[in-house]
Write a structure and sequence with these properties.
This protein is an alpha/beta fold and 215 residues long. The chain has seven helices and four strands, in the order αβαααβαβαβα. α5 links the parallel β2 and β3. The longest helix is centred in the first third of the chain and has 21 residues. The protein is flat, with a radius of gyration of 23 Å.
């Protein structure tokens, strides 16, 4: 059966508008740098030099179990001769020495668990101070952020409070600055009103803390 052209136009009208709107918002892959991985670490353990220390530990493990490119190449089944495995091995070592962690997410959710309000308040303050220290000493990963608790009815107050304390403390410590490529992750989203609430709260933070638009 052939669909009449006028019915097909009606069928595709709303879909075409939706596709056009989507393409305007998401034109394709971003041209700027994006991290190849994200590491989530419990907020209670975070220190300003955590990315560096984790890289050192990773290098120690590599050198213990793959002390040279021959062992490394055999473990990963690299073919193409010793020169190929050597080049890959050297790249891995160089990456671990220079920038082992590309994106660190300070985790107040699964990696932190449910604690007393007093303890989470104190952790939000201490981690913000550590991030400010890392900004000064240039020890942070290129991308960094926090994961707060979900905006469910049970956890919304806690998630919002942690974000408020963290950002307010950080801005106070740095004189109004946030790290480059700073991200706030809202986990376990189930309804659109949850990220909408987070976006609205960003606008409040920007106004109250004197931050530029687009937190």
């Amino acid at each position: 059966m052939t669909i009449p052209s006028h019915k097909k136009e009606q069928l595709f009208q709303s879909l075409g508008q939706a596709n056009t709107t989507f393409n305007e918002i998401y034109p394709g892959d971003r041209s700027d740098r994006q991290p190849v991985h994200t590491l989530y670490g419990g907020a209670n353990l975070f220190k300003s030099d955590a990315p560096i220390l984790l890289g050192q530990r990773a290098l120690e493990i590599l050198e213990t179990y793959a002390p040279n490119h021959e062992v490394f190449g055999k473990a990963f089944g690299l073919t193409g001769g010793n020169d190929f495995s050597k080049r890959i091995y050297n790249k891995v070592v160089a990456k671990l020495k220079s920038e082992a962690i590309e994106d660190f997410r300070i985790d107040f959710e699964d990696g932190y668990g449910n604690r007393s309000n007093e303890e989470e308040d104190a952790t939000a303050v201490s981690t913000a101070i550590e991030v400010a220290k890392g900004m000064r000493e240039k020890t942070l990963s290129p991308f960094i952020g926090i994961r707060i608790k979900p905006f469910t009815e049970e956890m919304k107050e806690r998630g919002l409070r942690t974000l408020d304390i963290f950002v307010s403390t950080l801005v106070k410590e740095t004189g109004g600055k946030l790290p480059e490529n700073f991200v706030v992750m809202l986990p376990k989203v189930t309804i659109p009103e949850q990220p909408e609430t987070l976006a609205n709260f960003f606008s409040i933070l920007e106004e109250e803390l004197g931050l530029p638009k687009g937190l």
